[in-house]
Protein: Probable multidrug resistance protein NorM
Organism: Turicibacter faecis
Amino acid sequence: MKKIDMTQGRVSTLLLTLALPIIGSSLLQFTYQLVDMLWVGRLGSEAVASVGSSTFFIGLGYAIQSFVVIGTGISVAHAIGEKNKIKIKSYINAGTLINLIVGALYALFLTLSAKRLIGFLDLNHAGVSQGATHYLLISAPMLFFNFFNLLYARLLNAHGNNQEVLKINLIGILLNLTLDPILIYGCGQGVSGAAWASLIANGVMTLLFYSRFRPLFRFQPSIGFERKAAWDIVRLGFPMALQRILFTFVNIVLAKCIAIFGQEAIAAQKIGLQLESIVFMVIGGINGAIASFVGQNHGAKQNDRIRIGVNYALGLAVGYAAVASLLFILIPRPLTLLFIQEEHPIRMTCHYLQVIACSQLFSAIEMVLNGFFTGIKRPNIPALISIIFTCLRIPLALLLMKPFGVTGIWLSIAISSLLKGCMSYYLYRRIVRRRLLSGKDTTSDDQSDHRHDTDHSIDAKGICCE
């Protein structure tokens, strides 16, 4: 299998080589989401609200499973940097088995609890609740397949082999786009048709990933399931997974607040989030590239390359986010009209985009630096930042709802994103970048890591003692 050595060569070229296929996959995914929402949007705001309500619990599944993807990805990237083939396979074995267990249990949970979960949101609309419940039930097995797709993609990214991920994503998305109108309208399935299309496409993608890269992904009995490898995955992935889980729970609480203002408000946030993915798809590509780049270079002790790479990635991300912010401020209505034609949801979506526009810059900074912290095996830092400021959204929303209505909820999201970006950059500049990458403490940190961690991860004292 083709593998890119990120410890050598021009930094900017390497990062673009890593990022562009991920961005391409994200662009394809966004195109799918755009067309999917266009088909669903033609059913009206009630259908959009049904899909939007169920996606909170689908997102919770991704949040829980992220500890497997993140932990396995970090561990494999470091083992590649160390050129240790046995450790690479040990981590893949452990990650695959854990992923299988988590996927099966969560799919079973959604199947048994879908109606109660949707009922918790207090949607106060029988049609929206019924559509959301059906969508969630069909999405349960879809998540099982997609959990493997996410893990397989992350493993290939760690090897620097992103082009194959792009190709398989393209096949899955084209299949999904073909099935959407057939199942939604041709078969009269409505919202459920969109869920069936996603289920079929993700199942096909899982088969393609596994058949194409069977030697890499298959469980190797001679190595087996090593408890130390499993612990490393859980230890490294849990902080970021906890962040995402809490983030999802906060969004569920906010959804209950949004539901007070009607199904149009739920639809407005759903459409707004789809448009925000214009930013996240590119920044997410840079995040994935910097995580793999930093992971390999940290494993090879190439600190100068890490610093150069992070600075370059930040410049790209902030520049792109600035352009997106201007579009949200200046032309929110034409963007919203891509999804829905009803006037009241259009006005609410436009207002949402204008309120959260400036926060895109700070979200970009946070996402890039998340990749950096992940790459140096310190995912606890961005996790703590996100947990604190994401949870702040709830009291902020309750406080601001009184004078500003639903706009107060949008403001709580924007303010927390701004604070997360500022704190991430502060810690990068004042602690990690200056102390760990300037050369002042590199030797002492490496010696401490050798005494305390056989994988040479950065000692927590090296981060927090300033």
The two ends are 43 Å apart (CA to CA). The chain has 18 helices and no strands. Residues 11-457 form one domain.
